[in-house]
Amino acid sequence: MPRLALATLIAVALPAPALASATIGQPAPPFIVYDSNGKTQRLTDYRGKIVVLEWNNPGCPFVQKHYNSGNMQKTQAAAKAAGAVWLTVNSAGPGRQGFMNRTQANAFIAAEKAVPTAYLIDPKGVLGRGYDAKTTPGMYVVDAKGTLVYKGAIDDRPTADPADIPKAKNLVLAAVTETAAGKPVSVPQTRSYGCSVKYAD
Amino acid sequence: MTALLRALLSLIALFAALPAAADTHITARLVAESDRPAAGRNVSLAFVMKPEKGWHGYWKNPGDSGVETRAEWTLPPGAAAGPIQYPVPQRLTVAGLMNYVYEGPYAQIVELKLPAGLAPGTRVPVRVKLDWLACTEEVCVPESGTLGIDLVIGDGATNNRETFDGYRAAMPRPLGGEGRFAVKGDQLRLGIPLPAASDAGEAYFFPAEDGVIDYAAPQTATRNGDMLVIETKAGSDASAATVLDGVLRIADGKGLAITARPGPVPAAGSPVVQETPAGGGTFLLALGGAVLGGLLLNVMPCVFPILSLKALSLARSGETEAAARREAIAYTLGVIAVCIALGAVLLALRAGGSQAGWAFQLQDPHVILVLLLLVTVIGFNLAGLFELTSFGFGQRLAGAGGVSGAFWTGALAAFVATPCTGPFMGAALGAALILPAAAAMAVFVGLGLGLAIPFLLLGFVPALRRRLPRPGAWMDRLRRILALPMFVTAIGLAWILGRQAGVDGMVTGLFATFVIAAALWWIGARQAGGRPAAWAPLLPALAAAFVLVTLVPRAPDAARAAPASAGLHAEPFSEARLAALKAEQRPVFVYFTADWCLTCKVNEKAAIDRAEVAEAFARRNVAVLVGDWTNGDATIGRFLAAQGRSGVPLYLFYAPDKPVEVLPQVLTASRLTALAG
Questions:
Q1: Structure confidence by residue, pLDDT tens digits, B548-595
Q2: Which stretches does DSSP call E strand in chain A?
Q3: What CATH number did the domain enclosing B258 receive?
Q4: What is the CATH number of the domain that holds B150?
Q5: Residue B66 forms contact with A (CB below 8 Å)
Q6: How many structural domains comprise chain B?
Q7: Does ipTM come in above 0.90?
Q8: Residue A195 in contact with partner chain B when CB distance is under 8 A
Q9: Are B418 and B536 within one domain?
Q10: Residue B221 bridge partners (DSSP)
Q11: Could you tell me which CATH number the domain at A21-196 has?
């Protein structure tokens, strides 16, 4: 019965992000989504902490660039060390490239040795569309007050070549570090690069 | 066997070092327009990309997702590769995300500058690591290949010219004129100067930069005279943009490279106005202009008589203060009511997408002729040929005196004033038409207010009224004198008519004027004789005049492309024909045009397709060649490039045994006749 109430709550609450929009300096759109362990994750649960959102699609070569090289995992660890919460989001629709159920998602995390706080499964794309997420990897940083302070690419090298990673500036870590230090984010918005988010049609 | 293989390989290496990147979903080849390019010159290279079925490559701005193509060149010293030029892309929407792509084979052109001083026969190895993204609707694969070609310095013969002409045909062509864009809230409006007659059935704007538009939002394109207006949802960076670059697709695979700067964009269905860039001040500027313009209208020949007569009647009446004020206000309301009505009609026409507008009307000789008749009738009335005592609701109601009389006089003044506003008020009214409906209405009210100001002052400031001279016989004299500016106006209109419809048209118009005048003279005579049905002759006269109006030929269609340039006997351009004419020692005027080039069309109408130019050219036996670049003819494109131009218009004059003269992009007829002088 609490389960049903929760489902109802989610059904009611989920459309909310679609009404908001992800604008720098504005409150980040709120959400309630199941994670890969069947737990609900809300943005408001993390009020007081920096939250990083990472749009993920394991089939996308640009995502693979950052996972196979270990760059994404390192970024996750560094952000968490700076006090941030890391939520990886999969907005692929069922049957589309990169879609995963909970088991598959947990297997992906284990295989990649990824360390997100949680892996959110968003098969209807409500969270993704609420944040206007268009590419994987696509990154968002929300500050402790719930304000969106960064959206865009993970770094400034829009290629699929892992050899570019050492030369790149990690824009997400920069945003997290600056926010943690109470400073404004110097590069708050970039063009994210990669594959399109494979939303359900 | 291995020796043979090695020999074979080296042979392949010699002719096309690395022909194609293998095992990719989009195959890439590097080809050169000339295998024996000349040293110190440019040679065109192309990445010839061929996607597998279901796969696509990306434009420079890939849209909501995707990546542009990157090239890392390895070139001999002194050689330099230019930027990658992309053909006009296509749209592909997947699950609500917009991508700018190529779903079929496409070629990207790069200009390679070769160092000077290389001896013929020198091998120039060109290598490039090319990275591109290949996607289906489902998956994306970043692909990469090292491509190469070995060029051998030679005579520059372009052995692949036809192939490259095909690639170039798919490239956007630079549009000469600059567009305007305006961002209001989340709406972006883009106006691009494009002649009304040009084809733009599949207009879509591909922005070069990210963030200026919402890619997935629909774009509505409307034709508005010589302006193509595109409206869509603005992106987050749009309001900060100082320039908007991109490609305007006008048909599948055909497009124009455009640049737009912030400025007013006309509304759908309103006339084109030349406005200097102005931001939110446009409205206040237009309103101020309208009030001032309305004020100035009082001294225009068609309004002044009515106004001064009414002012005199006010002075003559010797009414009380309150009554004078009431009359002044009633007059003002009458003026404004008519202005609002006119504005409403115009806005209705604008909403209907019709090309309404003063400038437009004045291009129609029929409208000019009707104005000519109207002004002549008013002139003869003032001159005393006939009286309007029992004719015209305004005069009759005005004659009734009092508040309603004043209202109708105001209405009449405003109504009669409209012909005068054309040449005079075009800018403010044009601005009114690009403003939102409410603001446009305010401009019309402003116009009426300006027109009513002198009368308001007379009503509210008794001192002014007292300064008006006493009524007397001089009033009749003044009325006769006021007929003179009316006739001058009529002469001006007849001149415009002659310019638009030729001598025959003008004579037809003058004959219509004569018929009306004769009828009025007869009416005047009957009035003097006290006949009851004095106005009877007017009807047949009007009917005759109407027939004559319809007989006036319409102005020649200015937008028709040039080879039909009647007076000039223009021939289609070709380099061979140009060389032949030069060999004949004939002076040659060459011009390049395109249906989508507004500057070209304006120059053709205003300077080239003119009788005096045709005469002057005929006198000196000047040959005329026209290059029509509407469809991006590659021969013409090359000729333009050889003259250092990327697009049209281009005007050249070749005098025998003299270097070619490049004429300015804004031509005048006198500049052309002087050439033949």
A1: 877 777 544 333 333 344 567 888 999 999 999 999 999 999 999 887
A2: 32-34, 40-42, 51-55, 85-90, 118-121, 135-136, 138-142, 148-152, 195-196
A3: 2.60.40
A4: 2.60.40.1250
A5: yes
A6: 4
A7: no
A8: yes
A9: yes
A10: B230
A11: 3.40.30.10
